[in-house]
Design brief:
- The chain is mainly α.
- It is 58% helix and 4% strand.
- A two-stranded antiparallel sheet has the order 1-2.
- Helix 1 runs antiparallel to helix 4, helix 1 packs parallel to helix 5 and helix 2 packs parallel to helix 4.
- The N and C termini lie far apart (34 Å).
Length: 164
């Protein structure tokens, strides 16, 4: 993929996932009397917050499953959906509301943080076949950080632009 996420190492990736619930909560906060739900499904320059939250939920779920199966002693092959998620080109269904989306995101970030913290140092280099490429646990975790941070920036800009 060749971006800044490719250089992140395990400690940074764990710290990134640990910070995400707070960062996403801040991004989806709107000053009263306005409500995040007034803007959640409204298109901005790069789509709606709902669209990006849905994509993050779907991609993080895919990457979490891939991290789990790739860390097995005999890794399971990965699908094209995993490759798309690792490069942040996937999408997913929109959550019913901003609150539902934030709740689901928080749960996924906590799951990923726990998964990453439980990995042994040798697990980070385990890899699985993803068709035309091999992906390591490290690359999958880097993909999760990419998805969470890149989409967070888009959602922040979208909400701020619409709410101002």
């Amino acid at each position: 993929m060749g971006d800044r996420y490719d250089s992140l190492q395990p400690a940074s990736l764990i710290a990134s996932m640990t910070s995400m619930p707070r960062r996403w909560k801040d991004a989806m906060r709107v000053a009263p009397p306005k409500s995040i739900d007034d803007y959640f499904t409204v298109d901005g320059e790069h789509g709606s917050a709902a669209e990006h939250v849905g994509a993050v939920i779907a991609q993080l779920s895919t990457l979490s499953d891939a991290i789990r199966t790739t860390s097995y002693n005999v890794p399971e092959p990965l699908t094209s959906a995993v490759v798309a998620a690792a490069s942040n080109t996937g999408s997913g269904p929109w959550p019913e509301s901003a609150s539902d989306g934030l709740s689901e995101l928080t749960s996924l970030f906590e799951t990923l943080t726990g998964q990453l913290q439980q990995l042994n140092p040798r697990d980070w280099n385990k890899s699985a076949d993803a068709g035309s490429t091999m992906l390591t646990v490290l690359a999958l975790a880097q993909g999760a950080s990419r998805v969470a941070a890149d989409r967070l920036a888009i959602v922040e800009r979208t909400i701020r632009t619409l709410a101002d």
